[in-house]
Structure formats: C-alpha cells, structure tokens
Amino acid sequence: MNPTAPEPDPIGVAVVGAGYWGPNLVRNFQSSPAFRLRWLCDLDAARARRVLGGYSTVQVSAELDEVLADSQVDAVAIATPAGTHLPVALAALRAGKHVLVEKPLAATYAEGLELVAEADRRGLTLMCDHTYCYTPAVLRIREFLRSGDLGELHFLDSVRINLGLVQRDIDVVWDLAPHDLSILDFVLPPGVRPVAVAAQGADGIGAGRACVAYLTLRLNTGAIAHVHVNWLSPVKVRTTIVGGSKRTLVWDDLNPSQRLAVYDRGVDVATQDELGDEQRRDVLISYRSGDMVAPALAEREALRTMVDEYARAITTKTPALTDGRSGLRVLAILQAATRSLAEGGTMIDIDEGHTA
Amino acid sequence: MNPTAPEPDPIGVAVVGAGYWGPNLVRNFQSSPAFRLRWLCDLDAARARRVLGGYSTVQVSAELDEVLADSQVDAVAIATPAGTHLPVALAALRAGKHVLVEKPLAATYAEGLELVAEADRRGLTLMCDHTYCYTPAVLRIREFLRSGDLGELHFLDSVRINLGLVQRDIDVVWDLAPHDLSILDFVLPPGVRPVAVAAQGADGIGAGRACVAYLTLRLNTGAIAHVHVNWLSPVKVRTTIVGGSKRTLVWDDLNPSQRLAVYDRGVDVATQDELGDEQRRDVLISYRSGDMVAPALAEREALRTMVDEYARAITTKTPALTDGRSGLRVLAILQAATRSLAEGGTMIDIDEGHTA
Amino acid sequence: MNPTAPEPDPIGVAVVGAGYWGPNLVRNFQSSPAFRLRWLCDLDAARARRVLGGYSTVQVSAELDEVLADSQVDAVAIATPAGTHLPVALAALRAGKHVLVEKPLAATYAEGLELVAEADRRGLTLMCDHTYCYTPAVLRIREFLRSGDLGELHFLDSVRINLGLVQRDIDVVWDLAPHDLSILDFVLPPGVRPVAVAAQGADGIGAGRACVAYLTLRLNTGAIAHVHVNWLSPVKVRTTIVGGSKRTLVWDDLNPSQRLAVYDRGVDVATQDELGDEQRRDVLISYRSGDMVAPALAEREALRTMVDEYARAITTKTPALTDGRSGLRVLAILQAATRSLAEGGTMIDIDEGHTA
Amino acid sequence: MNPTAPEPDPIGVAVVGAGYWGPNLVRNFQSSPAFRLRWLCDLDAARARRVLGGYSTVQVSAELDEVLADSQVDAVAIATPAGTHLPVALAALRAGKHVLVEKPLAATYAEGLELVAEADRRGLTLMCDHTYCYTPAVLRIREFLRSGDLGELHFLDSVRINLGLVQRDIDVVWDLAPHDLSILDFVLPPGVRPVAVAAQGADGIGAGRACVAYLTLRLNTGAIAHVHVNWLSPVKVRTTIVGGSKRTLVWDDLNPSQRLAVYDRGVDVATQDELGDEQRRDVLISYRSGDMVAPALAEREALRTMVDEYARAITTKTPALTDGRSGLRVLAILQAATRSLAEGGTMIDIDEGHTA
Fold this sequence. Notes:
The structure is a homotetramer of 356-residue chains.
Chain A: E1 11-16, H1 22-31, E2 35-41, H2 45-52, E3 59-61, H3 64-68, E4 75-78, H4 85-94, E5 98-102, H5 109-122, E6 126-129, H6 136-147, E7 153-163, H7 172-187, E8 194-202, E9 212-219, E10 224-230, E11 232-244, E12 248-252, E13 260-269, H8 277-282, E14 285-294, H9 302-316, H10 324-342, E15 348-349, H11 350-353
Parallel strand pairs in A: 1-2, 1-4, 2-3, 4-5, 5-6, 7-10
Antiparallel strand pairs in A: 7-11, 8-9, 8-15, 9-10, 11-12, 12-13, 13-14
Helix pairs in contact in A: 4-5, 5-10, 7-10
C-alpha cells in the first residue's frame, strides 16, 4: 500500500431491511473503513432502532425514498424478503446507487435478469451476497480446484441440514440450496458448469412445501454434484466433499479446528494405453492411501470479506466475485430444480428450466 | 431356559466360499453351540485351507457335490459372488439343505424368485444374510419405528461412503445399497413400504460402472428415503437419520460410544382443526427443543445374532427375520434402481421395475 | 413481571479497560436494558475510541478520575491487567461505585481481601466476572450437583488447553486456571470445598514461567479435582468430567450441539452391611450401563447473564452469585498452587497457602 | 527375502493363561508362520478348551510342568496375573524356554530384576508384551521423536480413561499406567529418560484402592510427562499429546480414521542472543500457525507385530524392542509412583523409588 496516497472517502451506504440478516450487514459495514453507514431502513422503524441499539449515530428511516434521496448514499445493501428484491433494487439502481442484494438475487430468473440489465445499462455495481463464497474455506477450495491440485472434479456432495425455520413463502430448496449452488458456481474452474438438475423433495410435516430435498446436478464434464437440504434434522450437518482425480477434499464447516481436510487417497484407473494385454484385464485399478493435510486457514468473518469485495467492485468499477450474473446462474438452477420437483424428479436442462 | 431339556444336536453346516466374507461366517458358526461346522468349500482349496489356518479340524473341499453329499450337513451358508448364488443355492436346496445366502440374494429378481419358490416347495429355510439388520442399533431402530416412539416416518437418509473396492462385476449400487435397502425393509412398520425409486450415478474415474450413486425412494405413505453410496470418498461415513413426527433418530455406525441418538427435537405443524381463523394464518408451526437420549446398546457381533437366527428359523421351521422374501424385496428395488440409472434418473415403480 | 410498575432507571455504568475483554463488556452492557453505558475508559483513549467504533454515542476518557466524578456513573466494570485491580477498584469503591472486576479478583489474596473489606464497609456490590459460571452448561452442572442428581462427587477433571498467548506477567496457572477454579467453587454443593492443592508445571519453551501445569485438589470429602492448563497445545480441548456416585457428567464446551452429556453408567460398590459373608469376598462391585442424556440447553451468552446478575445484585443489595468472596476463594487456591509449584509439587493447605 | 533360503522351522510356543489376554496371544501365534502353537495351558483346563473352541488341534494342559517338559516347546508366552509372573517365568527359563511376559513384567521391581538376571545368565530371550508399542501409531511417534522431526520434547500428556474393571489385586496405576509408561519408555530418544514421579489418586467408590490417578513425571531434560488413568469415566478417552519444539503430535487411539495428527503449530521463543536490546523486551515470543498432517498409517494388529518381534529376537539372539529391561524400567516407575501415592504426592526419585 502506498503510505502517501490519500485515504479515499468512504462509500456512503444504507442497509435496507432490519430482519434476520440486516444486523450482520450493519455490523460489518460499520467495521469496514471503506464504508460509512448512513442509514438503516425498514418499514418497521422501531425494529430498525432496536437493531442499532441505544448508542448509535446511524439514522433510521421507514421510507426507502428518503434514503435513496440522500446524495451521501452511494450504495445500498438489501436484506429484505426475496419477493421484494426486484422493486427495491430497481429503485436503488434508478436512483444511481450501487446495489448489494441478499441471496437469492431475486424471486425469479426473469426478475434477476431485469436487475442485471438495469445495472449494466447504468454502469453500476450489482452484487449478490453469497456469503459462504467469502469464507476462508471456500476461497481455498476455489484455489484447489482452479490450480489443478485436486485434479479433475469427479463429484461434489453437499449436505446442509439442521432444525431450520420452516419458511412461510419459500421451500427448503429456495431457502438453503442457494448457499450450495453459489458455492458450486464459485469454485468450479472455468469451462466447467452444471447443465441439468433433478430434484426430489418431501413435505413430511404438512407444511405445504418441501422441507427435505435432494438435488442432483449433471456437469458438462460428466461429473455429478448433489445437494441435500433439510429443515427437519435435529442434528446440524454442513459438510461438502469435493472428489477430484488427484485428491479429495472434505469441508466440515462445523469443525472450526479442522474445517478443510485434503486427502491424498483415492482410486486410480490406468488408461488402456498404459497397459499390456494381460494387464488390461487385471490391474486396471489401484488405490492410493496417502496422508491427509488440513491446511491452516485464516479466521476471518466471511461477511467482512464480502463487504470489502463490494467496496473493491465499486471503487474499481469491475464485477464483484459474486456479481449479478452469478446470482442469475444460481436462479437458473433453482428455477429448473423447482420444475423438476413439480415433475417428480425429471432431469431438467438448466438453460431451459427457467424459461418455463 | 429349561435346564432339564436335553441340548439338541447341533446343526451340521458347511460354508461355501472362502473369500472376503466366508471367514466371518466360519468364525461365527464355530462360536455358536447351535451349529457344528463340517466343511469349508471353495473352488480354491488352498485358499480355504489358509482361511481355516493350521490348527483346524474342519474339512476342506473344492467340490460342492462332495459337501452336499455329506448327510451330516443339514445347512449351508453361501458366500460366493452374487452371479453364482442361483446354481449353488439351488443345488443345496435340491440336496435338501437349508440355505443361507450372502446379500444380495441373487443376481436378478427372477433368480431370487426361483430360489424362494424352490425353498417353499421343499419346506426348507431360505435366509438372506442381511448382516446389518442384526446389529443392536438396527434392532433398536426397528423397535422405535414399530412401537410408534418415533411417530410417523417422515424421512430416512442413509449415507454409506468410503474408499471402497471398485468391484469388477457390479456397480456401487449393487455392492453397497443392499445394506441400506435391507435395513429400510427391516425397520419399516407393517404396511409401510417403498413404491418407487429413482437413481442417479456417476463414474468419475472411468471404471465402466457407477462409483457414486444416489437413490431416492418414495414410500406409500408419502415419506421419502434417500441413499448415498460411494466408493470414492476418502472419509468413511455410515450415518442414517430417521425422521419421525415425534422424534428423530441418528445412527452413526462409526461412533461406538454413541451409535444411536434419539432427539426429542422437531417441527410441529398444528392441524387446521385445532386452530381458529386468525391463528390459522400465523401460528401453524412450532418447534420442540428437548433432550437427546443415547440408549445403552448391547455390544454383540451382528453376525453371531444372524447365525443364531438361522438356527432358530431352521429349528422352529418359521421364516427368518431376513428370509428369502426380504432378499427378494431388496432385489426388486435394486433392479428398479438399475433401470432408473439407465434412464437418467426417472422414478421407477418398484413392482414393475423388475419385470423389465 | 408487573406490567404497570414503572421501569426502573437504568444503572449508569463505565467500563475501564479497552483491551482484550473490555469490548465484550461494552457490547453486553449496551444490550442490557438494566444498564446505561456512560463511559469507556482507557489510558489509551484512541484504543477506547477504536473499540467503540465510528458510530457510538458512548463517551471516552483516559482519566479514571473523570469517570468516577460523573454522578451518573453508579457502577464500574474493570477489565484491566490483574496487577492494577487493587488501585482501580479501590478508587471506584471509595467514589461510592459498585464494582465488577475481571478475573482474577486481584493480584494477591491480600489485595483481594482489601477489596472485599472495602466493599463491605461501604455496603457496595463487589462482583467478580467469573464468566464461565454463567454459561447455561455450568448453571446446569451446579443444579445437578446441588440437587443430588449426580450423587456424591467422586472426581472432577478439567482440561483447558490450547495454543494460547504466553502472558508477560503471569504463568499459565494464573491465566487459565481461574476459569476452572471458579467453576469448581461455583458448582460444589454447600459444605464441600477444596482443602489442599498440589501443582506441577513446566516451561518447555523457556518463556520464564510455567506454560503447562497440572493442579490436583483434595476436597474435604476425600474427592479429588484435577486441572490441566496448557498454552502449548495445538489442539484446543475444554472438557470437564464430573464423576458422581449416581451419574457422571461430561461437559465439552467445544461441542455446541452436545455440550452436556449425563451418563447413567458407573461402578457400584456394595457396602459391607448389605452383603453376607460369602458375597463380601466376591460380589462387591457391579457395573451400570444405562443411557446417556444430553439435556437441551438454552443458547444464551454467558456474559449477558453475568451482566444481568450484576444488575440484580446492585438492585437488591444482595451478594452476586460470584461475589468478591468467591473471587477471594479462587485467589486462595491460586496462591497455594503457586507455592506448591515453587516447592516442586508439595500438597499445600489452601487456608495456609496464602499466608506465606 | 531370499527365495531359495529354506524356510526355518517354526518356533514351538506354548501360551500360559487362558483368561482375558491369553486368547489374543493364541490367535496371533496361530496366524504367524514363525510360530507353531503347541499348548494352551491354564489351571482351569476347561477354560482353556473353551478358548480354543471345538475345532482346534492345539493341546490343552493344566500342568505347567507337562508343557515345559515338551521338547518341541521352544518358547512360552505368559498371560497370567502379575503376581504369578515370577514363578511361572522362572520355571520356563530354567527349563530353557524363551519367555514373553504380559505387562507388567512382574509384581515388583525386585522380581523383575530376578527374571532379567536369569534370562541373561541362560542367554534366553526375555520380552515384555508392551502391546501398544507395536501399534503403527506408536512406532511412528517413536520415529518422529528420534528423527528430530518434533524437535526437543517439551511435554507428553497421556489420558487413558474408561469405565474399567476395578481390579481385585491392583490399583488403577498398576492396571493401566503400564501402557502409558511403556509407550513413554519406547518413544523417548536415547539419553532422555524420566527421573522422578509424583502420583495422586482417589478411591471415590470405596473400592479399597485408587480408581482415579494422576502421575507427573520429570524428565532429565526438564520436560514433563503426565498420565491420567481412571476406571470411573463413562466416556472412553485414549489421547496422547506429544509437544515438541518444532511440531506437536496428537495420538487419538479411538479415531481410526485419523489416529495421528502432526501440527506445525506452536510457540517460538527467540533466544536472547538473536535479539537487540529493544526487542529483547518485546518480541520474545512468536506463534506458528501451519498445516496439520495426518500421516497414513498401515492397519496392522499390534499384537501380530509384537509376536513377529518375539520371533526376531529369538532367532537373531538380540534383545527385543521391549525386552526385559524395558519392563524393568516401567516397574521402577510404577513402584516409585506407588510410594508417592502413599506419601500424598511427593515427587519420588525413580532410581531410588524401587529400593524402598
């Protein structure tokens, strides 16, 4: 860093939505020198005031227009229900503000597309808060996959289950799978992408929507990805296995002392060319049983890294690592999964799934 | 037990197959007073001799006929590759011997049916060695589900992954899923049964058959069951979650100090009738956050309990807990799963899946 | 709560010390309606300002006198190095303020005694922030021991090891063992108390003070307590086993999904009277192998409960659960342990250990 | 191996004692081609017969003399209570047989010395079955410590607790600590050795002997070792931490998928010479936060490796890795620990502890 360069003015920011996630955004924007938090906006101003507490100088408003009219607000961060993302984010973009949106980007692919187009048109930053992508573990998994250290991806298996809040408006797929799907989108190397998805679900408790669901994704390489999301599990599991041709990695997000484990173990299949006739029949398969390495990871709050990335994208006018388009790709999968769920588990082409 | 009743003569038994599983049968038949082990039979007599070791009085033969001709042999236990189960078991039944067969019962549903019919016709015991059903944990899960202590079954999720031997002749579904499917068959209360299955798989390593697979089963009650089997995972997981309306149970077979955990935690949804109009909109869902109980389980080798059950079935001329019919039900699911795999994951009706 | 009773005025409070622990006190006093945080005081005012952040209305001062002169300050909370507890707390008491002190209460038993006497003389609340005592787990352990549900205490084994900050002024015993000793003091039933302590330590790395230490305590009942504290362990362990005559309890503070486990397992020894002559020789010992219960615990931040207890003690003019005297009892053990350490592990009488 | 060398005749061996441990010796001698098991000898011949089962060609005897008179018996393995080791082993040595003795080598140091002297005099192999030393994990720990990969040893902490059988004749120190002490003896590099021990214990249940005990050992290098043995813990823990100046190693014997973990984490203290005056005050200590490596370990039964080592020692006429002298060193510590226990925890010099 150049010590003589003048510190740039902080970016004025407003958080919209003081519900479950808003307080975390408030806290992280406050701790980042790149931002100056101007407003916390919520239809329920008393709730916003409670979130700020009795010692804060941040302003409260129940009126989005008031906040957007403030010229000191350069950027907004939206943590309202998904159904309201389109109008709130559109209003912000039209007022010339950069926009960060809680996952999922919007309630439908079409709405997400509208946001991306509007941000492009105006040259504004549109970013999706895929928080997990900014954990030290996921950033490291991305490196492992992109550097080739894992070899080619064979399978990715993600389990995210817990006794969760049964949502009123969305099923477990739309509530939890955006985490897994945004991580998948984030870590895949260039050129590798999911092309189809099948989803199975159940609503054991009669909640009126799937509370347990399984998603199977086909990748263009032939690899498979699978996601298990579940609101009804009394035990909490958040484990992802990423199986590669060279190494296999296990991410256990609930094991703070060993979040990542990289195994030099696996099955190797000799290619035909390497083998003589006799061997071809017999010694096709061998096993590696090497060490496991748990790499040291920095302990840094993902949301703080995400907030810094938002500042970087705004300042440099370059797309955020999880920009609107990544949010859109996740919406395409979610929408195809919903269609598959309705059709009893048929494999749905992702590119076509959202056009229905 | 009546101390004055004369001890019945032990049942003469021969083990056929001295490969991976045979030695376990040899050891358990030897330790059961209900049996007298007469022969270990294997095409490779030297292998059979090695299994018995240098201190054994048990006879070795490479000839099945020789063994079946021995009138002191009342029963056989077959631990040969699945493809040979039909001829070996048929020969044994035709020689008037009771038959225990390694899982899966046979290589196809049709072959399994032939064995069941032959045993019925001759009034002989036909039993399938679904070993896991005889673990103290699974026996207890069965009680929990049948007694109503878990309430109605909502979901069952079973994960069985490991760095496993890639089989030459069968895929991971036929290799590992028989365990999960036989357990499912064993623990479901009367009247509850799977009716359809969808399967997705992948062969990342180019082994020529699925090395990773996911099975989703629909039950006649609307409940869902899911099985993840995987030969490529460097970490071993054997965990089953059984979610009920009253309680949810987690079986972790790799945690000897706490194999079963029963959680009095869950989500309750009030039925419409219990609620007034206002409430109906708002308070449908409540959460229970009660204690967890890990019941004390006896430590007993499952295979020994299985062997005792074989003796009981033979002696009392009643079906074994895992009789030929249970083996047949598992084959019906496996065959439907194979068809689903070939069709890219379509949900296949189990009753029709095996007729293809 | 009586809804018509007027809400009492909040207690004006100042936090002294903006180092490691102060920020946690700041946060919890701010979130408690029973308090109004007036000041954060630190010799380094810039550090205090950084802790409060750029959005706070709380005042900063580098002058303790300024803070103590504020009549709106009813109470202080001291989070400065142990060596400064005496002068800071004395000044506060003499200014008529209630005092909460970070553990340990003071740098020596004599200093702690001075504080207790001063608070008594002035009728002010003196409380020691033994935070762990206010965790849901420890509150529950206390209930278990006091209600008799565990039976008589046989042993208590506490391990608190981690890669910890090697302190400049104190050894690992004074840094970490206050946690274990204050918990021990807190959970023991009335009439049961430690009477002697032996300590062994090592300074492998040449830090000039013990970095690894073991404390063994004799209780007046014959029971034993043992504490392992260690700054050099790359793995973090915080596990306490409380062995009773009826049940045994394991507290694993690093397992959020199962912090407490109560085992109905153990060894029973028949008393001589219950046995005939023959039996006396042979069947003295039997084993129970019952269930384990992991009780549901509320998830509440211990420091918030501690802050509420401070308010309760001030308002009701009754001793806090962890009052100055409990801090004094912990100091007596620490001082005896230090003497034992110096003498190579001799067992030191606690009542006399601090008089040296 | 030289394929043309004639296979040496197997060593004729007899196992004496068919109680808890004898059956394991029987099984492992039978599976080793280096041995030919001739006899299982027990005062209770029926028990010996039950151990061998109904299919064995091994001879049973209730008479030690009969076994020792058999010229085909070259070696014996003694798994009788410790109090009988002296007469049984002496008789065997005097009959010219090599001797393997269950841990502890003998009931007292003096008795152990007598055995060592007798074996020396006759040029026979005397080996102590310190089984844990032959686990792949301990063999690897030994390598780590001797190669210098861990750096200098700072501390070793060993926990071995479980709901154990309260022994009739010995306390928990003599029952369990031989494991930890023999491992310590085995892994320490040449020149490093324990010089003194202090022991504290408790008999909560009134069993008449210590059921919980803590041993602290001083090493000649200033390092510390600590052992916690406990019969009353409902949870089983078998964890050893070996802290070195370069790396620290954790051995969790109950975690088969990750028994050893080697941490490149620790605290470094700069030596005075490396530092300038200013620094000397401030930057003495730094922290390393590197990766953890869990080395791949072979899965091999320790007892089988021990049996092979017995054969090697006999055949090559060289001391076994755990020869009589290692058993003697363990006895010296045990005896000093017993004296410390009786004296309330005084630190006892190991060289003098056994002379009392």
